[in-house]
Amino acid sequence: MDRYEAVIGLEVHAHLQTLTKAFCGCSTRFGDPPNSNTCPVCLGLPGALPILNKRALELALRASLAIGCTIQNRSRFARKNYFYPDLPKGYQISMYELPLALEGELEIETGGEKKRIGITRLHMEDDAGKSLHEGFPDSDRWSYIDFNRSGVPLIEIVSEPDLRAPADAYAYLTALKQILEYTEVSDCNMEEGSLRCDANVSVRLRGASKLGTKAEVKNLNSFRYLAHALEYEIERQIGVLESGGTVTQETRLWNVAAGRTEPMRSKEFAHDYRYFPDPDLLPVSVSDSTIADVRRDMPELPSAKRTRFQTEYGVSAYDAGVLTDTRALANYFEAAARAGAPAKSAASWISVELLRRLNDAGKDIAECPVEPAALAELLAKVEKGEITAASGKKVFATMFDTGKRAAEIIAAEGLAQITDTSAIEKIAREVVAKSPDNAAKYRAGNEGVFKFFVGQVMRETRGQANPQAVNEILKRVLAGE
What is the mean pLDDT of residues 450-474? Predict the structure, then answer.
C-alpha cells in the first residue's frame, strides 16, 4: 500500500419512500406474499402503459438538492435493455443521456480529515424483481421469481472516483444514508434491499495520473461488507500487479461466507444496453418554481442541525454528532429540551444512559418507553437536588423498564435526596469514629483518604445524601469542629 493507492467510486441505489410503484398503482409494501403486488404495467404485459409517480419525482428532486446537485429542467427516461429472468419487460426504465440532476458533492470526515466527494449524477429508474434460489449441487435446484419489487421507484447516485480507501467509502455511504433518511427520501433499510451499493475499484502507483483497470464489485448489502470487500479487492489487485500480471476489467461478487470477491462476468468493454428514449413516457420537465418549492420544503439537513445544536443548545461537537445521528433521535432531544430539560444535561443523559439501554434492549429511539417529557421531569429533579445523580440513574432504569414516571418511582422506593444537614452530620461522625486510623492519616496531610469517608457516608445513606453537603460536613468533622 506504500507504493499503490486505491481509486474508488460508488453507485448507490435507494428505494424511494412511496406508497406505490414508479409507473403504476401497485403497493411497494415489503413482505407481502410473493407476486401479490403486481399488475400488467409492472409485469410488462403487452399494451400496458406506464405513468410516472409524481411523489417519486418529488422525492428524487429533494434528494438531488440535499446532495448539492444541479437539477436539469429537462430529463428523459430511457429503456435499458438486457435479459434476466426477474426483469419482466426485458428492459429497465432508467435515465441515460439526460439524467435528472448533475454535479453534486458530499462532505465526509475520516481520520480527523474532511474531504469533499464529487457526485457525478442522480437519476431515476425502476427496480427489477427478485430471484430466490434453493437446492444444493447434489439435489434438485429451484429458482423462484417474486415480482413484488418489480417497478419499485429508485434513485441511483453515482460518485466521482474521489474515494481513496475503504474508510472513505464507509464514511461516504454513512453520510449519504443519513441524508436520505433525514429528508425522508428513503428508509434505507439494507436488510430489505432499500439501499444497495456497487463499488468500482482500481489501484495505481502513487502519484500516477492514469487510472488503473477497474473491477465492479456487487452484492454489497451492508456497510461492513462494503469495507471488507474493498479491502480484499485492493489487496487482490495489488497482488496481481506485483506478480507481473494484468488486472482484468470484470464484474465480481462479494462472497460473504468465503470473505472474498469472485468473478461474475467479464467486462472488457462496456455493456451494450442499447439505450433509447422510452416511447411511452414523456420527457420530464421541471420548472424553476417547482425546484424552489422543493427547496423551501426541504427538512433541516444533518450538518445544519449539528451546527444549530452547538450554537442554540451549547452542546459539544461530539454530543451534537451523537444526537443528530438520526432525525428521530434529534427530535427526541429537542422535545426533551422544550419540555424543560437542561440542554447539556439532556444531551449527556441521552448520549450515555438512554442509548446504552436502547442498545441493550435491541430497540431504536422510536420504541423508547421513556417519553421526552418524562426524561425532562427526571432531570429537573436531579438539577433541583431532589435526588442525587446516582439515584437518578436508578430511577431512569426503572422508568425504562416499567414506563412509570420519576415522581412515582422516587416516592415508592424512598429515593428522595437527604438534605437534612443534622442527619448527614450524625452519620458522618459515626463513619469517622469507626475509622480512627484513616482520620489520623487525613489530619496528617493524606487527603486521598477523604474519598474513603465520602464513599462510606454515601453508602450509609444509600446514595441519597446531598454530595455537596457531605463534603462540607466531613471536612468540618475531620477538622475536629
Answer: 72
Residue 210 sits in the same domain as residue 285: yes
Angle (deg, nearest 10), helices 166-182 and 223-242: 150
d(CA 72, CA 119): 15
The CA-CA-CA angle for residues 149, 366, 26, to 5°, reads 20
In order of 13, 266, 275, the CA distances from 251 in angstroms are 17, 6, 20
> Beta strands of 206-273 (E only): which ranges?
215-220, 250-255, 260-266
Q: Within this chain, do residues 52 and 186 fall inside the same structural domain, yes or no?
A: yes
Phi and psi (nearest 5°) for 265?
Answer: -160, 155
If you average pLDDT over residues 7-17, what whole number do you get? Answer: 95
DSSP 249: P
Q: What is the pLDDT of residues 233-256, one digit of tens each?
A: 999 999 999 999 888 888 898 888
Q: Can you read off the three cell numbers belonging to residue 286?
A: 421541471
pLDDT (0 to 100) of residue 418: 59
Pairwise CA distance, residues 188 & 154, whole Å: 11
Residues 6+ apart with CB under 8 A from 352: none
Tell me the CB-side half-sphere exposure of residue 74, using CA atoms within 13 A: 2
Examine the domain organization and report whether 163 and 56 are in the same domain.
Answer: yes
Residues 378 and 285 in one domain: no
Q: Tell me how many domains the chain contains.
A: 3
pLDDT of residue 381 exceeding 90: no
Residues 308 and 186 in one domain: no
* 3-class SS letters over 53-97: CHHHHHHHHHHHHHCCCEECCEECEEEEECCCCCCCCCEEEEECC
Query: What is the band of 417 on the pLDDT scale with cuts at 50, 70, 90?
Result: low
- At position 252, the amino acid (one-letter code) is R
Cα distances (Å, whole numbers) of residue 375 to 26, 60, 178, 342, 362: 42, 37, 26, 11, 20
Q: In whole angstroms, what is the distance from residue 204 CA to residue 6 CA?
A: 7
Would 295 be classed as within a structural domain? no
Q: Are strands 130-134 and 142-146 parallel, antiparallel or unpaired?
A: antiparallel
Q: Which three cell numbers stand for residue 55?
A: 411523489
Q: Are 422 and 442 in contact (CB under 8 A)?
A: no
- Print the domain residue range for 70: 4-290
The model's pLDDT over 77-128, given as tens digits with 9 standing for 90+, comes to 999 998 888 999 999 999 999 999 999 999 998 888 899 999 999 999 999 9
What nine digits make up the cell of 6? Answer: 486505491
Q: Are residues 277 and 312 in the same domain?
A: no
pLDDT range class, residue 435, cuts 50, 70, 90? confident
H helix or E strand, kind and range, residue 159: strand 153-159
